[in-house]
Design goal:
The chain is an alpha/beta fold and 274 residues long. It folds into 2 domains: 61 residues, lambda repressor-like DNA-binding domains (434 Repressor (Amino-terminal Domain)); 184 residues, Metallo-beta-lactamase, Chain A (4-Layer Sandwich), CATH 3.60.15. Helices cover 31% and strands 25% of the residues. The chain is elongated and about 60 Å long.
């Protein structure tokens, strides 16, 4: 698979943080002691390191992590899974979106997380590995993450599962509560509510694979996090207390962008690095 670009640029991070904290341009410029014009240029994508450094401090962002993001000097090292895990990256309008498949190599029991824009490659792998998909878990119900749900349900006849806070309207769909547990052979899946980006955003903590895994949807991206103009505090606190406290070698399988790890995000994500 070709290298997947980071979901957000440095100015996306700035805009998300500013919008989420409800700080006006005039207020931020005054606090950071920069002109409104300089702020607007940086928010538009111009790399002005001095201005970026001043802005970061007043948005509670890691200065060095934000500067590195601006200079494109870091990309997450990609973890390798020996078996039982596959990632699919498909184009949706002007972006790409990820979906995931996990399975027990012995029993061939499998579970899917989101559908992406097109599930054809996933279905091909399911057929090649002779897998039995028992569940389709939805991180949330935004269109890009469930675009091919009818096809996937028809092909697998699996049960669709979504948060009780954001149920799916798919025929026969079921809902789960937080800390629900599911098992697929030797693999276990636990639900964590990481809402904010959407009302029922859910992350799934998976054990039994080569690495501890958290399928996080749009909760966290490598070098960023899901945005929310209205529930930014909920999003940030759920990420900080529920995801950034998992085992340090946990792999984050994000809804957009590349795979990453908790350790790398602690060092390089402007929202969480210190």
């Amino acid at each position: 698979m070709a290298r997947i670009p980071l979901e957000d640029n440095f100015n996306d991070v700035i805009n998300k943080a500013q919008r989420g904290q409800k700080i006006s341009d005039a207020d931020l410029a005054q606090r950071a002691e920069v002109s409104v014009t300089e702020l607007a240029e940086v928010k538009g994508g111009r790399v002005n390191e001095l201005v970026i450094r001043r802005i970061a401090r007043h948005l509670r962002l890691s200065v060095e992590a934000l500067v590195a993001l601006a200079h494109k000097s870091w990309y997450p090292e990609q973890p390798l899974f020996k078996r039982g895990f596959a990632m699919f990256n498909t184009p949706f309008e002007d972006m790409t979106v990820n979906s995931y498949l996990i399975w027990d190599s012995g029993t061939k029991e499998a579970a899917v997380f989101d559908t992406g824009a097109n599930c054809d490659d996933m279905l091909s792998l399911i057929e090649a590995e002779k897998l039995r998909v028992n569940a389709i878990f939805l991180t949330h119900t935004h269109d890009d993450h469930i675009a091919d749900l009818p096809k996937l349900v028809a092909a697998t006849r699996a049960t669709v599962w979504a948060s009780e806070l954001e149920p799916s309207d798919a025929p026969g769909a079921q809902t789960f509560k937080e800390n629900a547990h599911f098992h697929f052979g030797e693999i276990s899946v636990k639900t964590l509510y990481t809402f904010g980006h959407s009302p029922g955003m859910t992350s799934f903590v998976v054990t039994g694979l080569s690495w501890p895994l958290a399928i996080v949807g749009d909760s966290i991206f490598s070098g960023s996090m899901g945005g929310s103009p209205t529930h930014f505090k909920d999003q940030f606190e759920n990420n900080r207390t529920k995801l950034m406290t998992l085992y340090r070698d946990t792999v984050f399988a994000c809804g957009h962008g590349p795979l990453t790890t908790l350790t790398q995000e602690r060092m390089h994500n402007p929202f969480f690095a210190r």
